[in-house]
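Our consortium's second objective concerns turning raw sequence data into structural hypotheses that experimental partners can test. To show how far this objective has progressed, the report includes one record in full. It was chosen at random from the queue rather than selected for favorable results. The single chain below, 115 residues long, was entered without modification.
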Amino acid sequence: MRPDLIVANPDEVTAGLNVELTFPQETDRSLAFALEVASGDSWEYGYQLVSDQRGGEPFWQEANGPVEIDLVGVSGPGPDVVSIPPEAPPGEYRLCTMLVPRSICVPILMLPPVP
């Protein structure tokens, strides 16, 4: 976890909403992010998230599918907006950069849906 390199707002979210990711040190990254769920002492790769950078709409897809984006680099402070899958169950997660030499992650808490 690198709060000096990546910040999630909000860091407590309900599935189906968006999260803004900012990068205080303007860290280089791609458009792709991994949403991983806590599983005991490890993390399970659940979803690929693609940010709205480069003028697109944020979208998500199941883990381990092909990354259907242009492999372009992004830099600057952000925000990079990602969409949380509406089917993601409540629990502890982390959002991590993908397709870069060194992944950086930020924790988020998925809240139960509001009745």
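The partners drew two points from this record. The two ends are 32 Å apart (CA to CA). The chain is about 0% helix and 45% strand. Both points have been shared with the crystallography group to help prioritize constructs.
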